[in-house]
């Protein structure tokens, strides 16, 4: 099978997994325990930096595609294997907004969450830093205002008047916040938006193991 995704439950690999499912593409999925660089023998030979996700496309034997960035993999799938309504085209008015959400989802929203995860759960008890976790929780919620503001005009999705990769990318950040027990800080429009996303069958399939086998428990 040409498309293969290495995935850990509860991790950023949910973004490309959700995308693959929404697009109905054929792919091979390898589900690993977290952190895969320790729990999955041979993983760092495939992906030397040991992060998750890892994705390959071997459809062209002369050009093996290997990728590690979750939103980038989703964009690659939409652009390479579309057309799909998940992508917003350069000719559409919402194109700039769409790209901004794709990059904001990780650089601005998921980034502070990873520090909360590290300094409340991943680090040994003796080296945890509650003040760092508290500061970056505040950082996350201050940046999350952008989502609440975007949805406050009554729109159902973030841009282009339809469900797109922007919703997958930001939707994962909100799902991850829920895994980190940060959902109580969601404002009303954001909370309603999350509940809408959770009704999508592909989201449910992509996150099916997150309640019992997520990155918070696979250590």
TrEMBL record:
Tell me which residues make up the GST N-terminal domain. Answer: 1-85
Q: Which InterPro entries match?
A: Glutathione-S-Trfase_C_sf (IPR036282), Glutathione_S-Trfase (IPR040079), Glutathione_S-Trfase_N (IPR004045), Thioredoxin-like_sf (IPR036249)
Instruction: Give UniProt keywords alphabetically.
Output: Transferase
Pfam families found in the cross-reference section: GST_N_3 (PF13417)
CDD domains with a match to the protein in the record: GST_N_GTT1_like
What GO molecular function annotation could you give as one example from this UniProt entry? Answer: transferase activity
Quote the protein name from its UniProt record. Possible glutathione S-transferase
